[in-house]
Specification:
Largest sheet: 6 strands, mixed
Order of helices and strands: HHEEHEEEEH
Structural class: alpha+beta
Helix content: 25-40%
CATH topology: Nuclear Transport Factor 2, Chain: A
Number of helices: 4
Strand order of the largest sheet: 2-1-6-5-4-3
CATH class: Alpha Beta
Shape: globular
CATH architecture: Roll
Number of strands: 6
Number of domains: 1
Distance between the termini: 32 Å
């Protein structure tokens, strides 16, 4: 397992279970792209540690009993990059609805930390669980 794969594994192991440890995995200038989040009225790009931690804090606060499963991580020829497919589920606190999702994450590391993440997910699943309408995104690409 190369460094990118190991950091992606650590991301999934600590994101919810140990947020303080997870914070040590990200670089100060991390960029996290969420191309389909705009459909929920959320930012499609988070730049820097503060923006990322703010969004992650919101997410962790919004769900309970969240878990990842069926994780598959694959390396690229460039050992600073990896991709993961994973499923997840949890309960949205405000609605009581179960949130089930399939994610694909592309990730790049630099100096032993997560430098870039691009996360794809189904905004319809999220909107249903959050009891929100899908918005017309204007900044997908």
């Amino acid at each position: 397992m190369n460094q990118a794969q190991a950091l992606l594994q650590a991301h999934f192991d600590t994101f919810v279970a140990n947020p303080e440890k997870w914070k040590s995995l990200i670089s100060d200038d991390i960029v996290w792209e969420l191309p389909y989040a705009a459909g929920l009225g959320h930012p499609s790009r988070l730049t820097g540690r503060d923006e990322v931690l703010g969004h992650v804090g919101w997410f962790i606060g919004a769900v309970e009993d969240f878990r990842f499963y069926d994780l598959q991580i694959n390396a690229f020829a460039d050992d600073s990059k990896a991709v993961a497919q994973v499923k997840a589920e949890g309960r949205i606190k405000t609605t009581g609805r179960i949130y089930r999702q399939a994610y694909v994450l592309f990730e790049e590391v630099e100096n032993g930390r997560l430098k870039f993440i691009r996360e794809y997910f189904d905004p319809i699943q999220a909107a249903h669980a959050l009891d929100e309408e899908i918005k017309q995104p204007t900044d997908l690409f």
